[in-house]
């Protein structure tokens, strides 16, 4: 018991002396509570804010490529939109442009003129808003089919449809050229309307 008591006193004395020695020889401003709290913490790495790409692509197109995105309409208020090289369009078929939105009124003749008057080496980007099934005449559908569409004659009431075609040259095989989404009362995002659909990609400039 005496030996244990002696050992306890010796240990206490050594601890007191060590604390006194540190306090006497270490500057007061050398160690702070904040610094001690930082010990053991993992460094925080902050990722830089992502840079916006053309047509809101997640990643940029390779050099020497055009960027595009085609978004169909959805519901009464969400118009179809076409983006090419960051230029946004939400319009009807307009001569001397490369975009065309098939609206709910009859623009079949206007659309056919648009396609026929487009010069060789033209990209044609198309999307529906509201009903392209009955409003778009068969002659116009046939003309779009000749451009390579496989779904234009499958459009049903208020189907969402997007399509990209080339006049006078061939598009790369690895890009998505067409997409369709039919109205389904059990799955529609909007009342009587299917969800919007879109396709996007990059087109080599040397093709045009």
TrEMBL record:
The source's superkingdom equals Eukaryota
Alphabetic keyword roster: Disulfide bond, Lectin, Membrane, Secreted, Signal, Transmembrane, Transmembrane helix
Q: Which residues form a coiled coil?
A: none
Q: Which GO terms describe its cellular component?
A: extracellular region
Please name the Pfam families in this protein's record.
ILEI (PF15711)
Subcellular localization, as worded in the UniProt entry: Secreted
| The keyword rRNA-binding belongs to this UniProt entry's keyword annotation | no
- Enumerate the GO terms in the molecular function aspect: carbohydrate binding
**Main site of residence?**
secreted
* Bilayer-spanning residue ranges: 14-36
| ILEI/PANDER domain mapped to chain residues | 105-168
Query: Family assignment?
Result: Belongs to the FAM3 family.
Against PANTHER family, the record matches this protein to:
UNCHARACTERIZED FAM3
Q: What is this protein called?
A: FAM3B protein
Q: Which organism is it from?
A: Promerops cafer (Cape sugarbird)
Give the gene name: Fam3b
């Amino acid at each position: 018991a005496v030996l244990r008591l002696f050992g306890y006193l010796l240990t206490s004395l050594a601890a007191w002396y060590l604390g006194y020695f540190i306090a006497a020889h270490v500057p007061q401003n050398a160690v702070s509570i904040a610094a001690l709290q930082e010990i053991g913490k993992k460094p925080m790495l902050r990722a830089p804010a992502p840079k916006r790409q053309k047509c809101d692509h997640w990643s940029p197109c390779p050099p020497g490529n055009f960027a595009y995105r085609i978004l169909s309409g959805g519901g009464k208020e969400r118009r179809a939109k076409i983006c090419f090289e960051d230029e946004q369009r939400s319009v009807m078929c307009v001569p001397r442009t490369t975009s065309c939105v098939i609206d709910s009124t009859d623009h079949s003749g206007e659309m056919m003129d648009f396609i026929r008057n487009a010069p060789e080496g033209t990209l044609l980007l198309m999307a529906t808003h509201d009903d392209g099934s009955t409003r778009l005449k068969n002659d116009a559908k046939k003309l779009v089919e000749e451009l390579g569409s496989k779904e234009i004659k499958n459009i049903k009431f208020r189907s969402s449809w997007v399509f990209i075609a080339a006049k006078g040259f061939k598009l790369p095989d690895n890009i998505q050229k067409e997409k369709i989404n039919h109205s389904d009362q059990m799955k529609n995002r909007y009342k009587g309307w299917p969800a919007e659909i879109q396709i996007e990609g990059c087109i080599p400039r040397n093709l045009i």
